[in-house]
Every structure is written in C-alpha cells, then in structure tokens.
Design a protein that fits this description.
two-stranded parallel ribbon; 2 helices
C-alpha cells in the first residue's frame, strides 16, 4: 500500500457494504494539536482506531 486510493479496492468495499449501515469503533480521539500524543499511542501496541479531530476539544 502506498497511501494512494485504489479504485478497485474502494469499489469492492462499496459492494460489500451495500446499503447497510455500519459502525466504526474509535477507541481514542485526539485533537489535532495533540497529534504527537496520537502518534505516541500508535507506537504502543494499540488496538482499535484513533481519530484526529480538527475542530472540537477532546477530553482526555
């Protein structure tokens, strides 16, 4: 993976999801100003998704 969008992969994902709703569990959220803390969390053996939020304050 090179970080570039893959049209075939996205089309497959859309087909698999169909019209059904889905939920992505985010285990921790960081404000954009805390990006270094988010990066440090990734360096740990971190399971789950992290989110960087650009507009609202995140409670620790």
């Amino acid at each position: 993976m090179d970080g570039e969008p893959d049209r075939k992969l996205i089309a497959r994902l859309v087909t698999l999801l169909g019209d059904d709703p889905f939920h992505v569990h985010v285990s921790r959220a960081f404000s954009l100003g805390d990006a270094a803390r988010a990066d440090a969390a990734l360096a740990e053996h971190h399971l789950g998704k992290l989110a960087l939020l650009s507009r609202r304050k995140v409670e620790p």
